[in-house]
Amino acid sequence: MPAKRSGRAIHAIMLFATPLLISRVTAFTPQILSPIFQKSSVTRYGASHNRLAPPLRPYRKPRGSRALSMQTEKPWVCTTPLYYANGPPHMGSAYPTIAADILSRYQKLQGKQVTFITGSDEHGEKIATTAADNAKPPQEFVDGIVGEFKGLWAKMDIEYDSFVRTTDETHAAIVREFFQRVWDKGDIYKKDYEGRYCVGCEAYLGDDEMDTIDGVEHACKIHRKPAELRREENYFFRLSKYQSALENLFRDQPQFVQPNYRFNEVKKWVEAGVPDFSISRSTISWGIPVPNDPDQVIYVWFDALLGYISALIQDGQEPTLDNAIANGWPCNVHIIGKDILRFHAVYWPAMLMSADMALPELIYSHGFLTKDGLKMGKSLGNVLEPDVLLQQHGSDAVRYYFSKGLDFGGDGDFSEERFSNVLNADLANDLGNMLNRCLKPLQKHNGELLPSYATPADHPLRLLAAECSAKSAVAYAALDFRGAGEAALELTRSGNKYIDDMAPWTLFKEGKIAEGTAVLMTILEAARIVAVMLSPMVPQVSGKVYQQLGFDPSIYARLQWSDTTWRDLPAGQPLPEPEGIFKRIEAPVDEAADAAKKLAAEKAKAAKANPAAAEVADILRVDMRVGQIVSAEMHPDAESLYVEMIDVGEAVPRQVVSGLAKYMSLASLIGKKVVVLCNLKPAKMRGVESTGMVLAAGTDVVELLEPPPGALVGERIKVEGGADPTPDEMLKSKSAQKVWDRVAEKLSTDSSLCGTYDGVPLVTSAGPCTVASLKGSPIK
Asked: Are 665 and 632 in contact (CB under 8 A)?
């Protein structure tokens, strides 16, 4: 729930979500946030109360809990992370908030009573230190940060229903009651321990979360600073007691964490064993005191996760767990970043089990956000400021790109060029032009009032509208915002084609006013339906469409998803003067980027002319492309081989035979994006021709080299900062085949899990190609 504490300036920002029903594998490094216990002495928590621990018993689902489903009779509840209030908001915090707002707006259109929760996590050592650095008391400091968050959400048209602050007394009361429940359950005890602590993460780190960086040992991999060796006596939650219950959860409820590849990661964490974790701190005072032990404060994560529950307490209501449950718990969806997945998917369920409370229905985890294929950071000067984007382009443009413009779930990339291309193509060209091409000629030939017209029930555009609205609804419910937008645009593009085919301007010239009017009225009703479908993403643009069609603002304010039903525009409704609904974005000229590209091209040209630079020229001759596996099946004559049909941007998919059968299932490959070597000479493998090669890393353990989710199928993969490839048509001759041998010798993964050529990342327009976990492994 709380967003990862600080450090975002030096690591990639969060981005978020793929359809629930579609599995993609996106590389990321699991973060195991368990303490390192070296020396310990145990004191039974609650011993002063002379209580004996209750006998260990299996977890039983609390009464009233439901199967995983987005359809419930109670209020529909969605949450963002509670953002850590040690600095102002950025695109990393805006991204999941936009997603949660879009999802909540969609559920409201479906007629549900919605509670959309966001808020701020305001305790912890990092905040106390940052406040002191700014010469402010912690409360005054976080008050200012919270004001910035609320201000940004207003600018982005974020319509949350509850903003919870962990410094509010209502929240503290919920934390104390929850703590007491867990205490009474015998699930808390006191223990001395020693371990490496990262202030930025507000957590003790495991060995796999630290590395030697720039010669400094025990450095946090995220914050790249040394983790301090600490020893203290704290209270611990008995997470290990819920090992079996967690295993059962992930066995019985495979939709509990999404996308699927995140679920698989969490399942592996649980199967590896879940150690107890510290839930208090004795070295700081900025936090909620532990009941009956004022020398300790409750650990920020144990505190902040409970904000999802305290946010349900209404004004004037007694802050109790029972009241929160009555107001909507359990929540339907937690939307979080992948760097806080362990807290939400392992710690949080066990805490709720201990307190005999129902679990959330779904935890949806998204990836990191990059800019121009690079991680964002102040040192690189490429931090993406949401306020700047909003000032330049408005809230709808930002909302649209960071929903429909990216694959929610995997990592995503922002570039000025792609930003302007997506918005201009979808909103200015497709939707805006469809509307404008109809309104002016309609008014010219029919006056300022809408004429009467009834579209035939079997009209192709009307039938398509029903199909598209159904597809869009399914996509929204699955957090597939790209799919939801594409369904709407399918109707828009068909409308534009229909006007081209029917040529109403010709009909008007021929005096066929009724026929020409029928074409325009049909397309305008389609535009209205598109506006409804896109309204969760772009409420202002959709409102302008309704306004241009003569509807009163109160009509738009009362929209429901049922308004995607074809109804024909009301006769006699006055039309205003036509205006554009979205102003085209002129992409700024990036002189520095242009100069860098020219320099890289010159270097590549010089390398080709210089035999000493043959290594550089080799990589330019190789045709590596982004491919997507359309189908896969077992080789008819080899148990170790698969036969895949892979779309590489050509007229028909390529048939590729690969030796992946020993390492991954057929089902896991379908729909996956991969890196395909396309200009090797075709070869038969056990009687089946292969016209390409799928690249993977490792030897005993093998992992696919994967493009980022936003990479375009068919685009060529290049070396970061280098010239665009100019591949040979086919590496046929023996001498040419040696080109690939020389290139392969230089291909490997680095410590960041990126695929590299001679140490330089291999990238697409959407970012680098990566593997799941193998570092320093050869790629072949």
From this structure: no
Q: Report how far apart the first and last C-alpha atoms of the chain are (Å, whole number).
A: 39
By CB atoms closer than 10 A (0-12, 13-18, 19+), residue 623 is buried
Contact 672, 628 (CB under 8 A): yes
How far, CA to CA in Å, does 579 sit from each of 432, 440, 540, 644, 755?
Answer: 9, 10, 14, 50, 48
Whole-number Å distance between alpha carbons of 264 and 773:
13
With 0-12 CB in 10 A as exposed, 13-18 as middle and 19+ as buried, what is 27?
buried
Instruction: Give the Cα separation of 454 and 394 in Å (integer).
Output: 37
The reply to whether omega before 330 is within 30° of 0 (cis) is: yes
CA–CA dist 23, 665 (Å, integer): 13
Q: Which of 656, 646, 651, 624 is nearest to 728 (CA)?
A: 624
Considering all CA atoms of the chain, what is the largest pairwise distance in Å, rounded to the nearest integer? 96
The enclosing H or E element of 42 equals: strand 42-43
Q: What is the 3-state secondary structure (H, E, C) of 343-381?
A: HHHHHHHHHHHHCCCCCCCCEEEECEEEECCECCCCCCC
Determine contact, residues 366/335, Cβ cutoff 8 Å. yes
Which of these, 312, 298, 311, 368, lies nearest to 336 by C-alpha position?
368
Distance of alpha carbon 331 from alpha carbon 335, whole angstroms:
11
The alpha helices in 478-512, defined as continuous H runs, are 481-502, 504-509
460-477 vs 513-534: helix axis angle to the nearest 10? Answer: 0
Cis peptide bond upstream of 259, omega within 30: yes
| Average predicted confidence (pLDDT) for the chain | 84
Which of 471-485, 506-520, 565-579, 585-599 is predicted least confidently? 585-599
Going from the C-alpha of 574 to that of each of 63, 384, 411, 444, the distances in angstroms are: 56, 43, 46, 13
Distance CA 164, CA 158 (A): 15
Helix pair 91-109, 138-155: axis angle to 10 deg:
50
pTM metric for this prediction:
0.69
Burial 358-373 (b: 16+ CB within 10 A, else e): bbbbbbbbbbbbbbbb
Dump pLDDT digits (tens) for 547-566. Answer: 999 999 999 999 999 999 99
Q: How far apart are CA 52 and CA 79, in angstroms?
A: 37
